[in-house]
Each structure stands twice: as structure tokens, then as C-alpha cells.
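agent> Task received from the user: take the single chain below, predict its 3D structure, and emit C-alpha cells. No templates, no multimer pairing.
agent> Plan: (1) validate residues, (2) run structure prediction, (3) serialize to C-alpha cells, (4) report one or two observations.
agent> Step 1 OK, no nonstandard residues flagged.
tool_call: predict_structure(input=
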Amino acid sequence: MVFLEWLSQGLVPLSFWGLVAVTLILTHITIVSVTIYLHRYSSHRSLSLHPALKHFFRCWLWLTTGMITKEWTAIHRKHHAKCETAEDPHSPVVMGIGEIFWRGAEAYRDATADRESIDRYGSGCPDDWLERNVYANNFVGIGLMAVIDIALFGVAGLTVWAVQMLWIPVFAAGVINGIGHWWGYRNFECPDAARNIVPWGILIGGEELHNNHHTYPNSAKLSQKPFEFDLGWGWIRLFETFGLAKVVSKGPIVERVAGKNTLDQDAAWALVHDRFRVMARYAEEVIAPTIEEEYHKADDATRKALRRVKAVLAREETLLDEASKQRLVGVLENNAKVRQIYELRMGLQSIWAKRGGNFDEVVKGLADWCKEAEESGLQAAREFAETLKSYATPAKAATA
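)
tool_result: status=success, residues=400
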């Protein structure tokens, strides 16, 4: 009788809503472990973590996912290095959204079989006795979690355990790796198809802000706009308060110096480092107002074409489908101003490609671009060019 009572209620009898709350808390701990430990720390080293916190995350992930730090880290690093190519371990652009959304976990497991890639991309991961002899036995951890859940919550613990086991395969593998490269909005035109699914990163700890992450992969903070929220960043700040974490990078930091009107080498360095935000500003401050101005002067047919091509004008070239390219060509052939702002955008974009060579070429290229923009006759382009001269790195800005 006592055994049956324990089996039905467990050591911690809870109501239905109590079980729901506990399940959400447990799955959230797993999400925090993935986004902070596996992703932001292990894969990108955007922060450092206290040894005790790192070990807690390793142990928790062993119990709730069975994922091995080196494997997860290597697969994610390879995803960034080979994004949207045939070598990407989980690209919906290559494999199809259905394949990654429904079989994302299988794609992850398939990628673990490539031990050469795991060794190549998994450097710097734990390789101690516990990792080799305990945490490598992933099914033992998952089984132990099932025993713990049943002991605590009785038969209902099986449901709690099942939700825990499905949370990462569904939300991380399916939603982030799949939908995060297929649907949503883009703050920045990074070279791959990554998108922000929603602006509030709560359910998956901030990983919803996937376009922001692919633009600045070494940033510990995934939110970029004032209206965006990254719950994982909140946890990082809390861990910092207690000395358990230290942020290494939040992405490129540049300054805008009022009154500065010289495009010197320091300004060029700042612009190169902040180039994705610079291009986003160009879309907002030059492309958008020019399209708006042309829209009000156009006939109905031209207005329709302008509406459809507005986003295309700022889009990463490699991501355009054939229909978008044809619409773009049609508008460029028939509107001189739109052709001007497009050619200026492509000219600015080409300068960033020179950043790995002789940097004097970058400085000269930016100076020439600003002169062209100022002489274009387009007020928005002229004003934008003036703002580029105000850029500086923080050290130089402090002495300006």
C-alpha cells in the first residue's frame, strides 16, 4: 500500500500545476546550460565561467540531454565555419526546412560520427577523468535522470522526464537550427540565412535572436536592438554579480565623436569592425527614405515594384533568389536614384572585402566612397557619408 502510494505521488507530491511549474523550471535550467555553457562559453569563449559553475552545467547536461561538450562544441563551430554549404552539419538551406525541423536531432547525431571534424573543431573542451569515464556514457546520465524524476514525482515523473528529453531536440535542434535559418527578421545582412525568430529570447534563453548571433558570434549578449530581450544575458549578469562569470566580449565597441569630420585610419578601423551595423544604418538612413521619396512620385505599377524591392536592395547578394534578382534588375533599369543608392551600397560593401589586405586601401576606399556619396546629389547619402567620419575606437574617442 505504501509502495503504491509512493508510486502514484513520489517523494514530492505535487498538484498538476505544480508538476507543470517544476517541469518548466527543470527544462529552463537545461536551456541555460546549453546557451551559456555549451554555446556562449565552450563554442565561442565570449565569457569565462567559474569552475564550479562549469562542472554543474556539465553534470546537468549529462543528466538531461546526454550531450558531450566536445561534440556539441565541434558541431556548432563547424556550423559557423561552413554555414549554408554542403559541409554545414544542419543547414535548412541545403537540407530543407522539413529535414532539420523534424530531424534536427538526427542531423546532430550523424555529425558526431565525423570524428575528424570533432577533433578539429572541438579543441579546448574538457578531457578529464570525469569526461572520459562518466560523462561520455550519455545513456547512463539520461537513465539516472529518469530514476530521479520517478523517485521524486512518482508515475508523473515519466512525463516530466519525457518533456526534459524532448526539450532540446525540439527547441534547439528543430527550432533554432531550422526555423532560425528560414523564418523571422534580420537586423544585419550577415553572409548566411540566419534570422531572429522573435525579438524576445525567453523560451530558448535568447537563442531566438539567431541573426544577431551569426553577425556577432563572439558576443556574450545576443540582443542588439532596444526592443530585444535576451534572457541568457540576464543570467550571465547575475552570475557576474556572484563572481561566477566574466564577460569577455559583447561584440565590436565603437564610438561616434561629435564634431569629428576626418576619415582617418582610426575611423576606418572602427567602421570595419562595426561594418554590419554600418550597413544596417545605410539601409535605414539612405535606402528607406529614398524609396519612400520615389514611392510618392511614382505611378501605381512603379509603387508596387518599389514596395517589393525595398528589402531586396539591402539583402545579402548571395541570399537572393532568381525572382528577387529579376525584380531588382527591373527597378534599377527604370529608376536612376534607386540605381544610385544600390551602387553606393555595393561600393561600400566591396570595401569590407579589402580588410584582410593592405589597410591603407581600406582607408582610401572609404575616403573615395564618401566623396562619391557627397557628390551624388542625394541628400540622404551625403548626410550618411558625413556620419562615417565621426567613427572612432574607444581609446581614440577618449582623447578626441
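agent> Step 4: summary for the user.
The chain is about 65% helix and 5% strand.
agent> Done.
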